[in-house]
## 1
Amino acid sequence: MPADRHLVYQTSLMSALLDGIYDGDTTVATLLEHGDFGLGTFNALDGEMLILDGVCYRMRVDGTVIPADASDLSPFAVVTRFVPTVTIPVDAPTSRDEAVALINATLESANYLYAVRLTGEFEWVRVRAVQRQEKPYQPMSEAIRGEKTLEFGRSSGVVAGFRTPLYGQGIGVPGGHVHYIDAAHQHGGHVLDFALVSGTIEICIGTDLHLELPLTAEFEQADLSPDDLADQIEQTENHR
Ligand SMILES: [Zn+2]
């Protein structure tokens, strides 16, 4: 059993994003009060969010990165204070699937949340970013039709995010949800796939989930339990 409790803070739900709830009421400043590590997106799906070492980045549809403002709003984000309890050195070229297998083999239980940070040299990283959405918002399955897939060549950087158990379906993205940013904080996005040359995987367990739901009319009206929830998550978040 984990020695200590460790809190993960989340605003809104993956299922709300899928339903087109792209405007939230949580500021970046609030997120940073609850963690120095995390990911998510910004209102109107205007960029992918990554928080590393207490700094929040907005990664735009063209793959470029700017620092987020404290007042920027998020419709979905997950953060924690990253305190690694497990470190796995990776000395040989490793695919995303192999990295996931390494992580899964190391976890003491599949039944908790885990924050994962992979720092290293990458042969390539394939990411996507979604185009900023205009109202009236369409469901995520429609919004990603305009997504751009980018591939970054050899670079050093960080792949970071969360591993969520299957019971978290709809709350988060079951399996891994990770974002990439290069070491110069110039390029990044939502990770589809990568090839790691070498690096270090660090893992931080999450035993407690604080879920803060938006106090918005749109959230009140959202359909959060579609019949094809699992398919929608697979299609929008996990495709390669
Ligand atoms: Zn993402």
Note: DSSP finds six helices and 16 strands in the chain.
## 2
Amino acid sequence: MYDKDMETDGYTGPGKVANVLAESQGDRRDIRVLDVAAGTGLCGEELSKLDFCNVDALDASQDMLDVAKTKNVYKNFIKEFLGSNRLGIDDDSYDAVIGSGLFATGHVKSDCLEQLIRIVKPGGAICLAIRENRLQTNEGCKDLESRMAALQSEGLWQQVSREIFPAYSSGDDGVVYLYTVL
Ligand SMILES: C[S@@+](CC[C@H](N)C(=O)[O-])C[C@H]1O[C@@H](n2cnc3c(N)ncnc32)[C@H](O)[C@@H]1O
């Protein structure tokens, strides 16, 4: 149902983050990737098309993880809430984190970024996408870019690219961010 709605909506976020991450990686087959707020697994499906073979899914909803499981593109399924709370994942566990459609009021907020950085190895990548107009209009997203910049000032990560792209969802532009963890 969600996947059909997203198809009708022309939602391109998962394909975009997967491509941006793929372009930043040399040998992508074995790098360990975590799809955060994975939902029904659309990002995992896109990563699979690009030959990523070592991808885990994290979501707060068991129902969503159960749907993601049916896609046969993930290795492990992690039911965790993304926020300022410490995730039950060791430091430096992943080569990359990917996420699309996660930042919104009532969903994921910028307070989870430190945890995402903590679980990615130094030199690893974090690639996230959001609908561009949410940055101005959505209470949960208004501080996203200032928080991203603050974490860069603190020396935790470095922005590689920030690209506005057309037709993220419902014809609206999206923004895709790529960071290197320091
Ligand atoms: C709009 S869906 C996006 C799913 C997928 N990434 C995609 O692009 O289709 C948002 C997902 O975030 C999950 N979610 C919302 N808030 C969360 C949180 N704080 N921690 C973890 N998952 C959360 C929801 O359960 C839902 O599966």
Note: The first helix runs from residue 2 to 9.
